[in-house]
Specification:
single chain, mainly alpha, 0% strand, membrane, Pro-sigmaK processing inhibitor BofA family protein, transmembrane helix
Length: 85
């Protein structure tokens, strides 16, 4: 219970700091745009038929990887899928 209270309190303080700074609004907008573009890229990759036999699931982990790494993130996930399966 103590850890939950600490997590909630620190999350609220972090949100307060982000909302107070004007620089953070541009960061939030840019991150949101990258998130939407990454999800659309994965969706188009899965349903366009460009890469046959591979399907990258749309979940927070794969979208986060594409947001952070971009196109190399997609290639990384396709390579991992090829090696592991």
């Amino acid at each position: 219970m103590i850890w939950l209270i600490i997590l909630i309190a620190s999350s609220l303080l972090l949100v307060g700091i982000i909302l107070r700074n004007k620089l953070s609004w541009s960061w939030i907008k840019r991150f949101s745009l990258h998130l939407v573009v990454a999800a659309m890229a994965l969706y188009l990759l899965n349903y366009s038929g460009i890469v046959h036999g591979f399907e990258v699931p749309l979940n927070p982990t794969t979208i986060g990887t594409v947001v952070l790494l971009g196109l190399p993130g997609i290639i990384l996930m396709l390579g991992l899928q090829h090696v592991l399966f």
